[in-house]
Amino acid sequence: MAFSKPLVAASSRPMILAILQEGTSYGYKIIQRVREISGGQMEWADGMLYPVLHRLEKEKLIQSQWMQSEEGRHRKYYSITELGKETLHQEKEAWISMNQIMLNLWDLKPAK
Amino acid sequence: MAFSKPLVAASSRPMILAILQEGTSYGYKIIQRVREISGGQMEWADGMLYPVLHRLEKEKLIQSQWMQSEEGRHRKYYSITELGKETLHQEKEAWISMNQIMLNLWDLKPAK
DNA sequence: TCGTTGTACATAGATAATCTATGTAACTTA
DNA sequence: TAAGTTACATAGATTATCTATGTACAACGA
Q1: Does the complex come out with an ipTM higher than 0.85?
Q2: Which of A61, B20, B66, B88 is placed for a possible disulfide with B80 were both Cys, Cβ 3.0 to 4.6 Å?
Q3: Is A24 a member of any domain?
């Protein structure tokens, strides 16, 4: 299964927001979570994730905090903001709508 | 309902391919068809569509032919190629997979 | 016959985004 | 101590969208 670039691009923001709505997390762990929920189908490179996280933070959809974990690890923890939750809700609705449109289109004349 | 740019971008190619799989069509009519299948939710500007059509043709997923309609209209008709049908099939599978991943993610912790 | 609206295609240029490659550094484990 | 993993960051190339603008003809009403 190869996901097209635009499809990955369309999913990245709502996916990150949804993962952070599960609870506070950090870059490296988000990548693992993506692999997990996709059943190994998606592999995000870290160089892909961090710029997206920075953009989301700039837009105030998420916020970050440097913290020391118990093992002594220095990590940047991200959490979703109220604005982020609202945005996620909207993006979720848009996704479902778009999916319905695509399914309708395909059902008329299913791909052979 | 406002669709995000990336979501529109992700849908444009499979949508055009699916519309052309219904039968030969041309730019202006494709825009109307998009409006129709989306229940008026999507409005494509012509300046958005034509570059995508040109790209798809360059990739040999569709092919074009200038024709004179009965009313005397000069139109560029597009039809899907075999390669285009295969690509549509793959993109459809990828879309369905991605949708499943998103639904799984959202079901774990539904957006409030 | 003139102006407006609709049909029909095209592209330039600004903007925005991804994605690869690369760099840094600390911790873990063999 | 070497290799692998964890962890974050950014530069630069590439790619794509999207707005604005241009052309042209048909249809229709005033």
Answers
A1: yes
A2: B20
A3: yes
